[in-house]
């Protein structure tokens, strides 16, 4: 019996020593926590960044801007001038004015002579009695005039009409983050940017998460799709390319939040309160509401900025509603001190209880 008590006492002394060593490690290095830096460490090492306590006096530079108004104008498509290119298919009508039976082409009264021809890879169009003529870059009217000139002297005065029936020059390519990418014809009429995206099935992401790039020759324009929906629509020039891709509208949530990780901003004008809500809010039982931080790199400023909110203050709820979260921001919520203590002491207590139970047996 005496020997058993001695063994138990020795074991408990070892456990106590282990507990003291663990507590000293927790107090010195802060290496026990894997969530990130402690609140005190962030507040003390301000030589690397500018620490801003958000309150009524300091909030102004970090507030959300006003939502831009929706434009009342409606884009009115106007048929653009089509310039032909290789791959276009033309339907050519040639009608002779001479009596039937004495002309190369059928008279207009009988419908004339219908010829269908594709512009080859060299940009040339081949027609009987006209020959192989370079037409790339011409308008339909210019092709009609060219045919009329080439037939002069070969036959009597003719009537010509050229119609584009298979177009590459007038089509619009839509690619990227849309449901059904492809090339869409403008033969039925000019396309606006919204027309083209709708024909492609619409974007696969929320509008504020989509950037739109419109390319035509040397001209490049970029929009956010929300801006297009707000009224910044435009008529697309023939042979345009429209590319939709994911906008860099993300932030990182770390520490004592319910759902940490890389997240999409809920909208283009996201508040800190909205961002916290999108990750489930502060984690109950472990978060230090006094230590809510936003880490931000700002172009043109010598040092990064760290915003700090004390969510124990009821007014901080209103501040969090007004502070804007920008793409690439990091939101970090520190752990409560009691939670850090529990992480250290709980395994020790469990081990001591298990050891005591083993010693008694």
TrEMBL record:
PROSITE patterns: PROKAR_LIPOPROTEIN. It is found in: Cell outer membrane. InterPro entries: Poly_export, Poly_export_N, SLBB_dom. Residues 1-26 form the signal peptide. Pfam families: Poly_export (PF02563), SLBB_2 (PF22461). Residues 77-164 form the Polysaccharide export protein N-terminal domain. Residues 172-233, 249-333 form the SLBB domain. Its main location: membrane. This is Polysaccharide biosynthesis/export family protein.
């Amino acid at each position: 019996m005496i020997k058993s008590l001695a063994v138990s006492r020795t074991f408990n002394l070892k456990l106590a020593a282990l507990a003291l060593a663990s507590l000293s490690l927790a107090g010195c290095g802060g290496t026990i926590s894997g969530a990130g830096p402690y609140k005190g460490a962030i507040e003390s090492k301000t030589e690397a960044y500018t620490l801003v306590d958000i309150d009524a006096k300091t909030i102004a530079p970090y507030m959300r801007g006003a939502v831009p108004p929706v434009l009342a104008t409606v884009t009115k498509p106007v048929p653009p001038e089509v310039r032909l290119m290789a791959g276009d298919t033309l339907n050519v009508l040639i009608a002779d004015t001479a009596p039937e039976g004495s002309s190369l082409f059928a008279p207009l009264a009988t419908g004339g002579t219908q010829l269908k021809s594709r512009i080859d890879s060299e940009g040339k169009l081949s027609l009987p009695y006209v020959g192989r003529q370079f037409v790339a870059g011409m308008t339909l009217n210019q092709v009609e005039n060219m045919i009329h000139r080439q037939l002069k002297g070969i036959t009597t005065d003719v009537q010509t009409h050229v119609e584009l029936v298979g177009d590459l020059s007038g089509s619009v390519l839509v690619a990227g983050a849309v449901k059904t990418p492809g090339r869409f014809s403008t033969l039925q009429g000019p396309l606006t940017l919204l027309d083209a995206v709708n024909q492609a099935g619409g974007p696969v992401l929320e509008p504020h998460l989509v950037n739109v790039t419109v390319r035509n020759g040397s001209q490049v324009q970029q929009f956010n799709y929300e801006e297009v929906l707000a009224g910044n629509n435009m008529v697309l020039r023939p042979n345009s390319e429209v590319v939709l891709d994911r906008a860099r509208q993300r932030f990182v949530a770390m520490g004592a939040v319910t759902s940490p990780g890389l997240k999409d901003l809920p909208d283009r004008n996201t508040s800190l309160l909205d961002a916290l809500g999108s990750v489930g809010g502060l984690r109950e039982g472990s978060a230090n509401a006094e230590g809510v931080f936003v880490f931000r790199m700002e172009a043109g400023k010598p040092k990064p900025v760290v915003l700090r909110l004390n969510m124990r203050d009821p007014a901080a709820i209103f501040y969090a509603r007004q502070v804007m979260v920008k793409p690439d921001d990091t939101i970090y919520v520190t752990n409560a001190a009691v939670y850090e203590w529990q992480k250290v002491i709980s395994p020790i207590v469990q081990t001591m209880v298990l050891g005591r139970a083993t010693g008694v047996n």
